[in-house]
Design a protein that fits this description.
This protein is an alpha+beta fold. 28% of the residues lie in helices and 24% in strands. A 5-stranded antiparallel sheet has the order 8-7-9-14-15. The chain is globular. The termini are far apart.
Amino acid sequence: MIIVKTKEEIELMRESALVVSRTLGMLAKEVKPGVTTLQLDKLAEEYIREQGAIPGFLGLYDFPNTLCMSPNSQVVHGFPTNDPLQEGDIISIDCGAIKNEFYGDHAYTFAVGEIDPEIQKLLDVTKESLYVGIREFKLGNRVGDVGFAIQKYCEAHGYGVVRELVGHGLGRKMHEDPEMPNYGKRGRGKKFIEGMVVAIEPMINMGTHRIKQHRDGWTITTLDNKPSAHFEHNVALVDGKPELLSTFAYIYEALGIVSNEEDEFRQKALVL
């Protein structure tokens, strides 16, 4: 059952989402060759708590860390380790936080130093597909409309769209209805209704869409060991249209990137 949020609850959820957005922005300055993902995990936990929030992943389903850190061919749910990042790596950082009893949950895939142009293209297309999907999150549409749009966009570039892992509703629980696959057929699935909040998160592979789950029960890699990218936003349905609760603006500020990609999904300007 879809749990509808009031406008007041959506604003509380925006606060939760922005805790995560600021944390990813802080981490953007720290992602570089030689740093370990465990070091980044410690920084994130401290920073989330400084914002009066609680790490959303720590202890959830017995996950032992604050961040899911998934480099290169890891798709999602990777553990932070003592292995230093290397020049040319990519790293998906997925972060959650609880504030006002609501979850924020989103992700960004970072380049570590200079990366191969073909891998950069994978990152660019995956992030673009996120917004392609968000445009379909509107009153009268259905879950399949978002999945179809993401799948069509990514497969047109020759990439594999992961089937087993999906986005989800978001609220007082990390995972609520509906599931939000990144593939599907137009007009299928649950209908979108005013006040719902979802996490849309394309997980896109350079090669095959097929994946492998490791014995630790968490780590997931591409079956062909080619790179995978992951981007995620939290979005509410407000006045019939998608309203972004999260932002990559803090990341872009840290990295010196100028972008207006989020503007169409905000009814009022974001104040950093």
